[in-house]
Amino acid sequence: MTNPLTLAPAPRSEAAERLRGEVRDFLAEEMAAGTFSTHVDTWLSGVDPEFSRRLGARGWLGMTWPKEYGGHERTAMERYAVTEELLAAGAPVAAHWIADRQSGPNLLRYGTEAQRREILPRIARGECYFVIGMSEPDSGSDLASIRTKAVRNEAGDWVVNGAKVWTSNAHASHYGIVLVRTAPVDTANRHAGMSQLLIDLSLPGITVNPIRILDGGHHFNEVVFEDVVVPGDMLLGTEGDGWHQVTAELAFERSGPERFLSTYPLVAEFGRRVVDSGDPAALAVLGRLSARVLALRQMSLRIAAALDRGELPNIPAALVKDVGTTFEADVIDEIRRVVDVLPSLDSPDPLARALAEAQLHAPGYTLRGGTNEILRGIVARGLGLR
Amino acid sequence: MASDQDLVIETVRGLLARHEPFDPTPERRWDAGLWSALAENGLTGVGLPESAGGSGGELADAVAIVRTLASGAGAVPVAEQLLVAGPAVIAAGLPLPPVDEPLTFGHAEGVRATPAGDGWSLSGTVADVPWGGAAAHVALLATGPDGAVLALLPTAGLPASGAVNLAGEPRSTLELDGVPAVAAPLNPAQVRELRAGYALARAVQLTAALEQVLAWTVQYAGERQQFGRSLAKFQAIQMELAEMAGEVTAVTALTDAAVQALHHGSDDFWLAAAAAKVRAGAAVEVVARLAHQVHGAIGFTQEHKLHHLTKRLWSWRDEAGSELVWSKVLAQGLLADGPNGLWPALTRVV
Ligand SMILES: Cc1cc2nc3c(=O)[nH]c(=O)nc-3n(C[C@H](O)[C@H](O)[C@H](O)COP(=O)(O)OP(=O)(O)OC[C@H]3O[C@@H](n4cnc5c(N)ncnc54)[C@H](O)[C@@H]3O)c2cc1C
Question: Is A49 in the pocket of ligand 1 (CB under 6 A)?
Answer without folding.
Answer: no
